[in-house]
Specification:
With 125 residues, this protein is of the alpha+beta class. The chain has 4 helices and 4 strands.
């Protein structure tokens, strides 16, 4: 399994993102929340992911971008178990809910926990 995060795996469709926020299911592990929806994706990949940091708590774009980079990196390093166990296609959004700047270790632990919860929930369906 490679540790790449190419453009095909990034969620960019506004239509799918809107559906995700309306109909998607969620799981959380503070300071992160994961929204997911089983859907047909335009690309031939099992999962597409988007990352969100709130403008309400982080006015500076530099800080928001830093948080998003940390989350994307943690996801990139820990996505292998998901890609190996997927039959259907899913759209995911990872939201950062905290109010202070996180460390990478805190984000990585949260992402690992979210991904294991996500796998457990989709296997129960």
């Amino acid at each position: 399994m490679d540790f790449k995060f190419p453009k095909e795996q990034r969620l960019k469709s506004k239509k799918i993102i809107e559906q995700l926020f309306k109909k998607g299911q969620s799981t959380s592990d503070f300071p992160l929340k994961l929204l997911y929806l089983k859907t047909a994706l335009p690309e031939n990949v099992p999962i597409q992911v988007a990352v969100v940091a709130p403008k309400k708590h982080f006015k500076s774009a530099v800080k928001r971008n830093r948080i998003k980079r940390l989350i994307r990196e943690a996801y990139r390093l820990n996505k292998a178990p998901i890609f190996n166990n997927m039959e259907a296609q899913y759209a995911l959004v990872i939201l950062y809910l905290g109010k202070e700047m996180p460390s990478f270790s805190k984000i990585e632990v949260g992402v690992k926990t979210l991904l294991t919860k996500f796998l457990k929930q989709i296997s129960d369906e």
